Amino acid sequence: MTNEINLVDEYDIAIVGCGPAGLSAAINAAIRKKKVGIFGSEFCSPKLHHAPHIDNYLGLPEMTGDELRQRFLAHVKKMGLKIKDSKVTGIYPAADGFTLQSRDTFYQTKSVILATGVNTVKPIEKELDYLGRGVSYCATCDGPLYKGKKVIVLAYNREGLEEANFLAEIAEEVIVVSQVKENDARGIRLAEKIKQIPGKPVAILGEMWSTGVKLEDQELKADGIFIIRESVLPDQLVPGLNVSNQGIVINRECATNIPGVFAAGDCTGLPYQLSKAAGEGQVAALQAVKYLDELKNKAKKLATV
């Protein structure tokens, strides 16, 4: 995290994800008079959007997925809630809850609900071993460490190309290995000093510190490596979070192993069902409200001692 924090908003409950679980959590938390922040993407719930028909959502038969998605969004809008088009790259413990990081912007919240959906991200070999030791997921955060040095950007989305341009203002040399589809990259012009190398990354190279990237047909050397994807692995998003090979580990109250952090929907594992996601979103919101109310009561008791 950077030394200078640009703190723009404070919430009672921050919800990461704007699919059915996240939106269900948002409206339930708002009904309970909590200040809610919803962090999503430019297009909420593409999985639901692409469903040709939904027949098993109670009370709303014979609807297309997008019709139901539009109803969810309209409900949220009617509640006066807005979705921030912000990718959260880190959630860290703070004095009064948690700090959420989105590039160089930080948000304060008393509790968190993770509703990030199914995570299909598969780290390349040795990626997690070198995270924080030359490998980073945030160019804005760690870019200044590589002033005058050589860096590699593994770009899996449009944001990766934008971050490469940012790094070109700092680093001496920038190499981009892009996995971005041509349509998604349209309109982005890379800085002249950036060198693009085709190939598929398969591993991070290094000893005590990362020294480069192995592609299928060659090896690239650099002082730092930035990996920019659409989403961050849950246990990297929230350090210390208990995650199994099925998803984020929760109890019946949708609570994780970290007090104040809850999870709901597909990110908690099977079954990947709409009703389950919406139901867990409600449970997570009500339990987050209960958690906040208990904190408030404890503070009052301490104040009267």
From TrEMBL:
Keywords: Flavoprotein, Oxidoreductase
GO MF: oxidoreductase activity
Domain of life: Bacteria
InterPro entries: FAD/NAD-bd_sf, FAD/NAD-binding_dom, Ferredoxin-NADP_redctase_2
Domain FAD/NAD(P)-binding: 11-281
PANTHER family in UniProt: THIOREDOXIN REDUCTASE 1-RELATED-RELATED (PTHR48105)
Name of this protein: Thioredoxin reductase (NADPH)
Source organism: Desulforamulus aeronauticus DSM 10349
